[in-house]
Amino acid sequence: MTTMRALVIERYGPPEDVLRLGQVPRPQPKSGEVLVRMHAAAVNSWDWDSVTGTPMGRITGPFKPPFNILGADIAGTVEALGQGVTTLKPGDSVFGDLSGGKWGGFADYVCAPASVLAPIPPGLPFIDASAIPQAGSLVLQALRKFPHLGSGHTVVFNGAGGGVGTFGIQLAKARGATVIAVDREEKRDALLALGADGFIDYRSEDFSIACERYDLIIDVVANRPPKHYRRCLKPGGRLVVIGGTIPGIIGILLASPFSRSRTLSILPYRVSAEDNLMLASMVRPVIDSTFPLEEGARALRRLGDGRAIGKVVVTMTESSKAPHR
What we know:
alpha/beta; Quinone Oxidoreductase, Chain A, domain 1; Rossmann fold; 2 domains; seven-stranded mixed β-sheet
């Protein structure tokens, strides 16, 4: 039996206590799948939820993590094809989001549906490619909810220092919008350098105190009552919630039918290889830090502490650090 390295988890808890590097059987691709030799996998808040057992994480796994190997955002090289796959071939460099299936990216190999993978454009490093799929597609799909965003509009990113916000700042500025970033004070300089026009430290100022100031709010935290969002949105404005606490999300869902001239909504995320490929030519990933697979627990801790700017990435091979050719 051929084995591989993988970060294995069997119970909820601090990443340092529950993640272990072990040898597990190498998977074999089923019909419609490909076997990918992993180079890099980005860490997302959904990984943190599924490791530590937050209420959000327990929605799909009430008593233990839903999968023994986590990691959804991947970049690597196609090693073998399952039956019926004609769109890819061995040796192709690919990236994509596995959150709609079995996950498994924190390992040397993973089986992925061919339909969720896109080719990595020439010159894009594996590390950067792995950072794009989930966060990039989330904010791209959120911006589509306000299709006429452009010059004269003001957009707020609440929780701007992570992957969603750092991609969102770039995409909104490319449309000519004014961007306000909300996060920790220590992230101010980096977010302003990325293109944000203004910055609010959430620990000393509440962005929602403003009256009728914003056209669009994209929120990964959802930590305000609905009436506060309505207060700070202009007539015709929109809130799009991407993440947050269960009470916060339920509050928005209950309030949305009564929003009148202001729209409060939760984003129904869809994995999209087409979005990933589009984003690869539109944004520059901000890489906060990289960790080798054997230090995967440190990567989760870096994300969970809330101090990362941009994306945290786990690497499996030295080649993941070199530009993709």
